[in-house]
Amino acid sequence: MRSTVRRFVSVLGAVALLSTAACTNEEPGPQASGRPTVPGPPTTRLLYALSQVTATEENKRHVEFTDLAALRRVSNGRPFDRRFGLLAVGAGELAGFAERIAQPTGIDLSQATDALVTGSTSGDAGRINGPFDAKTIGAKLTGLGYTPVPGVPNAWAGASEDGLDADDPLVKLGVTASHGLNVVRVDSGEGITYARQRDALRRIPAERGSGSLADEPAHRAVAGCLGTAIAAVLLVDEPQPHPPNLVGVGVTSGASAGDLRQIMCVQVDGDAAAAVRTLQRTLREGSSRTGTAWQRLLPEATVEQAGDGMIRLTATPAASAGPGLLIRALIVNDLPRWRG
């Protein structure tokens, strides 16, 4: 949880740097609405993104995802605007300097279809899917002082991996020194994987295969429960003395910003029916840590069982709450509770 909070603060800082972002108003590609419970081909962009991430213990703990194409659509081409900042969690710190790096590096987030970040703060790995070209980006990075990574095709490294470097070529462009673009691998026509450390590139291999997060039953079930999310965070919730639960929160796509809905899905360890009743009571009688009643924040919320051991909350947040209410609540450990 601690590393997630640090990244959350970074995302807020990145959003604060931007009042607008000049991105193309690109329509997302076709999206299936299936909610698979067994391994198979990915049917949503979230599941596809999870299929790119190896199922290491650290990667399982949390993932942040954004469908940038869909976010551009509902935000009228301004995905990194302050109002939608939390929905850009999958872009991590890149959201704060997207325009600044686009021309010098060739890493142009306005061309990306979706983005994902996973891992601990020091070992973060990120993925930007889109039609990027290794030759073009490699030439630009080389011009900035990046050097090829031995043994890794189409990968380049910038500053020292041991700490922040005043000679970092991106820092000289005004990018924050904690950025994750120290090591960049370009899979031409498919996307870019980036990290602070070279070893972290292995979290998101160049070719998808078995043993990914999409093959993990709990992650696949939670992602399926969330459906066609614009943004999502999957996090292992471990309050002592309770067993851990995998929790996913997301925002589903709509025709406009006013159509966005919040979803929370939890793979519970015990009686799902009892968890539904507890969550309903929390929404009816409880309050967030801000002191505001959940009934005011999430009016007309519905809670249901959504499969074996799965509970789902669906709601349209109050206008004052903002579209990233549940994402913020998950990251700061302030979700409405489903445990007694």
Automatic annotation (TrEMBL):
Signal sequence interval, chain numbering: 1-24
Keywords: Signal
Name under which the protein is recorded: Lipoprotein
Source species of the chain: Thermomonospora echinospora
Origin organism lineage: Bacteria, Bacillati, Actinomycetota, Actinomycetes, Streptosporangiales
